[in-house]
Specification:
Blueprint (H helix, E strand, L loop, with lengths): L11 E4 L2 E5 L9 H8 L5 H9 L3 E3 L2 E2 L11 E5 L17 E4 L3 E6 L16 H9 L23 E7 L2 H12 L4 E9 L6 E5 L2 E3 L7 E3 L11 E10 L2 E8 L6 H8 L16 H5 L9 E9 L6 E5 L4 H11 L4
Parallel strand pairs: 8-15
Antiparallel strand pairs: 1-2, 2-5, 3-4, 3-5, 6-7, 7-8, 9-14, 9-15, 10-13, 11-12, 13-14, 15-16
């Protein structure tokens, strides 16, 4: 059906940045992206499609694809993100540079730093620091808010990531990631003593239907999810906790955090996915600032020379301090 931008908005209720729409018989059969665009003049059809992709548009409390055909009585909720600057600005923020040349720069990101500007974190990010350090020498493929960014790690995860300094390097690194040729290895402290020595979690991930900021294992073919594979190996066992090595085959949002929680071993300090509830965490909360996850190893092929390169970073001091305490509780 054709979207009707001039239709009266009598079925519309606005609460803060959330809009709720009740679908009438006239709109039954309309695609969700066209319907949202016709009922909210601030959202184009393409923008509505993107909002569907990240779970910001739900129908009856569930995330849907952009081509979902509406039914009479459906309740559509649209959550608009906070506005962000069109372009990130340079800021003089110290960087821990592990390697740099004319094509790439490898950074050891500290815990607590966001990778690029977004709602709630408009500055003070890695991108702001990179713009100050590199000037115009960053690839433009990621756009003005994400120059050079090929892959990301969570705000509260410390560790290594590679940034592209030109478009050719960006394309090469992106292709390597798609072919699973970039090796990313993490150390994680998980809750509980893992019985097996190693294993693989092969479970698709998508946006949680009830909370778009969370990810979840979603096996329902009718909902959007993407393949996600994590290989893990036990390094050390303690009383009530385990240190594991996690290697990503894919790189989905919150992948290790969700996968470990899925098999019954959430990360220490990860209150979003079931951590933060043990007595040990309460006693040592001064050392725990979010999930205990560290991206300590990174391997890739240099986009210009073809050389295979391997980078490592020292374990963060507080992460290491927790391990020293836990080792006194070894089984």
């Amino acid at each position: 059906m054709t979207a009707r931008a001039s239709k009266p908005l009598t079925n519309k209720k606005l609460i803060m940045n959330k809009t709720t729409l009740a679908v009438t018989a006239d709109d039954a059969g309309t695609r969700i992206d066209a319907y949202v665009a016709s009922n909210d003049t601030t959202v184009s059809r393409s923008a509505a499609a993107r909002l569907c992709e990240d779970g910001s548009i739900t129908v009856n409390g569930r995330a849907v694809k952009k081509n979902y055909a509406l039914r009479e009585g459906d309740e559509v909720e649209i959550t608009l993100p906070e506005p962000v600057p069109d372009e990130a600005v340079p800021q003089d923020i110290a960087l821990d540079i592990v390697y740099e040349d004319s094509d790439i720069i490898v950074i050891n990101k500290p815990q607590g730093m966001v990778v690029h500007p977004a709602a709630g974190n408009l500055d003070g990010t890695l991108v702001n620091a990179l713009l100050y350090h590199c000037g115009d020498s960053l690839s433009g493929i990621g756009g003005v808010s994400r120059p050079g960014i090929v892959h990301r790690i969570d705000k509260d995860t410390a560790g290594l990531l590679v940034v592209a300094k030109n478009d050719a390097a960006h394309i090469s690194l992106s292709d390597q990631l798609k072919r699973h040729e970039v090796s990313r290895i993490y150390s994680a402290i998980v809750i509980g003593t893992m019985r097996e020595d190693s294993g693989t979690v092969d479970a698709p991930l998508g946006r949680d239907a009830k909370d778009r900021k969370r990810m979840a294992v979603i096996r329902d073919a009718a909902r959007r999810s993407r393949e996600a594979v994590t290989h893990w190996q036990v390094l050390e066992r303690y009383e009530g906790f385990t240190l594991v090595r996690c290697q990503l085959e894919t790189g989905r949002t919150h992948q290790i955090r969700v996968h470990m929680a899925h098999i019954g071993h959430p990360l220490m300090g990860d209150t979003v996915y079931g951590g933060g509830r043990t007595k040990f965490e309460a006693v040592h909360k001064q050392l725990i600032h979010g999930q205990c996850l560290f991206a300590g190893e990174l391997s890739l092929t240099h986009p210009r020379t073809g050389e295979r390169m391997h980078f490592t970073a020292p374990m963060p001091l507080e992460f290491d301090a927790l391990l020293q305490i836990l080792r006194k509780r070894e089984l």
